[in-house]
Amino acid sequence: MNTTHTTTRAHMNYSESEGRVLAHYFYDPGPDAEFTAAGTDVREVPVESAWGIKDRLSVDKEGFELHSFDHSFQAFDAEDSVVKDFYPQVVDFVKRHTGAKLVAVFDHTIRKRLPQEQMQFKKPSAIYEQQTTVKRPAVLVVHSDYTVASGPKRVREVMKDQAETLLKGRVAFYNVWKPLYRKVEELPLAMIDATTQQPGDLINWELRYADRTGEIYAMRYSPEHRWHYFPGMTADQALLLKTYDSETDGRCRFMGHSAFEDPLTQPNAQPRESIEVRTMAFF
To answer: The pTM is what?
Structure first.
């Protein structure tokens, strides 16, 4: 077990709506587009190691958990193998740790440090650039992946004819995030304890493509936010992250998170390589 107990300080890219639509374009919208970019409110915050509280965390309370994960799969460069052989491991992982009866994987993203990111760190509004279908840089904007509206919409897109029946029960979205092959030495992922965020901290953030518009949440800064991370995560460990929950009984529904530049990173650190697999779970 990793026994690192560290608090670091990091700059997190929060957002402000300024009364205009918060949006990011994956195409050139032209000079007349009116919108506010996300990630422009940069705040320095303490980020605490969660190793000491790992066994007390709940995905329904804080919004995240960390568990062991079989790391025998290595063919992450073969997308067909990821879908055929790795997805079933993820389904089993989510069922085991949430009690869901049905779990559907709907996509995955492999994130690596890319040369273009060196400039993007200085321009938060440009961070959420799509490089390829499944290979992208780390997201350095505080966000949660789905909203009250886009969660059910995604269920309808993925589950088709089954969707309306499934939406009558509880549905929750979970990301499974893990290192590909080796320990994470730089660009770790940090999570906000969901008990320290409020509904008013969430800002609708439109992701505009040429043929469609998606919607996630960016987040306003709050001094109440308590940040955690797992420094030194290895390939035999995976994070379970709550990104949407239809239940309104007080449990975590959305959880803010972001990659970040850790000032404790060593100069010779290996570039981070990770995968996140997005799932929807039905109860």
So the answer is: 0.89
